[in-house]
Amino acid sequence: MEIKQISVFLENTTGRLGEVTRVLAQAGINLRAISIADTADFGILRLIVNNHEKAVQALNDAGFTTRLSNVAAVEIDDIPGSLAKVMELFQKSQVNIEYLYASLESKAGKAVVIFKLEDHDKGIRIIKDNGLSTVESF
Questions:
Q1: CATH architecture, range 71-134
Q2: CA angle 115, 138, 51 (to 5 degrees)
Q3: Would you say domain 3-68 falls under CATH 3.40.190.10?
Q4: 3-state SS record for 4-72
Q5: What global pTM score does this model have?
Q6: Are 3-68 and 71-134 in the same CATH fold?
Q7: Do 16 and 59 form a contact (C-beta atoms < 8 A)?
Q8: Computed over its alpha carbons, how large is the radius of gyration of the chain?
Q9: What are the residue boundaries of the structural domains of the chain, listed by start?
Q10: Alpha-carbon span 88 to 49, nearest angstrom
Q11: Contact 63, 7 (CB under 8 A)
């Protein structure tokens, strides 16, 4: 019930993000979700891909610094209030969300929200116990 997220640490310079996407394209890696957070000097690119092991190898070979993390990918209905219900479950259970971002799902009427949770195991139990669907791969 979890997937691997790749975090790539980038200098905040022109073309660096393009280099990452080029390396992944050359390795035949398909991006499934992407998010970037930046400061004046650096950024953290977060990726969900179709083959995390191959992607990490390609990025490391190209000189990028990477880290793998477990995240929960929760499938929700693409209607108002769906995310609020999941957030309420985490709040009531006192599960801290470090960050989240969304991805498009190929199923009509569905979205996937990627959660990085402070207590991953407890968060997964909450998801499972409340009948929510997770995505284990894209």
A1: 2-Layer Sandwich (3.30)
A2: 100
A3: no
A4: EEEEEEEECCCCHHHHHHHHHHHCCCCEEEEEEEECCCEEEEEEEECCHHHHHHHHHHCCCEEEEEEEE
A5: 0.89
A6: yes
A7: no
A8: 16
A9: 3-68, 71-134
A10: 28
A11: no
Q: CA 95 to CA 72: how far, in whole Å? A: 13
Tokens in use for 9?
């640490």
CB distance 65 to 78 below 8 Å: no
Residues 6+ apart with CB under 8 A from 106: none
How far is it, in rounded angstroms, from Cα 67 to Cα 44? 10
- pLDDT given at position 1: 53
Give the residue from 113, 109, 107, 108 showing the smallest Cα distance to 127: 113
Q: What is the pLDDT along the chain (138 residues), one digit of tens a residue?
A: 579 999 999 988 889 999 999 999 999 999 999 999 887 788 999 999 999 999 999 999 999 999 999 999 999 998 999 999 999 999 999 999 999 999 866 677 788 999 999 999 999 999 999 999 888 876
